[in-house]
Specification:
Helix 1 packs antiparallel against helix 5, helix 1 runs antiparallel to helix 10 and helix 5 runs antiparallel to helix 6. The chain is 34% helix and 28% strand. It is α+β, with helices and mostly antiparallel strands. It is elongated. It starts with 9 loop residues before the first strand and ends with a helix.
Amino acid sequence: MAKNAMMTGAIGGVNPLFGAQKTQAMPTPQPAFGANLQVSPKSNFNTGSEVRSAASGLQDASQNRQTAFSQQKATTSNEKTATVNVDNSKVSSSTASSLQSNPVNLDVKQTATAQANEGGAMSADAKAVEAGEYSFSIDVGGETHNFTINVDENDTNASIQEKMAAAINERDIGVNASVTATDAADGKEATTSLSLTSDATGTDSAFTVKEDPGGLASAMGVADATQDAQNAIYSVNGGKEITSQSNDVSLAEGVTATLTGSGTTSISLERDTKSAVDGVRGLVDSINSALKSANASDGRGSSRFAGDIQTMNKSYSASLEKMGIAVAKDGTLSIFDEEKLAKATMDGSADRLFADQRFGFGARLDKIAGNAVNTELYADVQANFSFDRGMLIFQKMQNVGLFVNMLF
């Protein structure tokens, strides 16, 4: 055999046509690492439904707690001047902080009013006009609306006023007509009166009643205004006067004052303590419910889930107790002093424990709940692996070691 045919892995010889030839021997087949490794489809990671349900409840309670801690309520020093409404969905944290430390001083010169034409009380059974056809018009918002009322022989003041009110209200022109009736009593006859009132306050909603002399509106006492429409005039923190068609005025994004009378008032925001306490109470109830559910379930995942919650509760027991929350031996929580908890929500100490999304009790709870819902950290059954042991003889020893490590 030729010398070069002695090389490892080579087979050679002399071909009479092509001369010396070398061909590479086929290597012994080496299966890829993990070949024939299988996972039983019935043994995949599986977090119990009880754990997932309890964790989902914890996430909901946690979200409600965060919302509860962001709720603000407004205070006013003089409700005879203004009341305040807060839309917490629109109040930013910067607005809340600003109005907590720097109250708004509101000076109301006059409130906005709606025009009113109020007729006096008339005998309900009498008739102030003769039978016939009567026409009048109401000018409002730059438009003229014409009306015609037929008065019959049998009509009374009460029925005439009802006809007028029905005709006006049916047209929906921005003026509301109403009839007020009083029953006969103590020797006095029954009376009735007609009133016309703007649907909105402010001079833009003023109206004018027009008719020929001796007309129906004059006879019913509603031809002239008994209260003029006027705009609200107010100032904020000593600034220039502001005019408003409405008594509802915006002080900041999500904070609206309703002007109720002339005078001054101081308006500020503060944490809605009741909302915050209710948020913590809901969180406590959800944690206890999750523990009860996990402890009642079989499986390694349920046990680990319950253990993590118990460990968390006990590790924060000192901080929780300062806020009126006790941790029992079994890890459950109970609120024993709501005054302490309310005070903690006001001075900010509860925020660091419950509202901080990065650190503290609330953040740790969010992580546990998130792991239970989104990962297999609390799986009840680990995956079972099977493989062809005979194939391991072809693996390098370091690969076998890695494979064994993976299993255990």
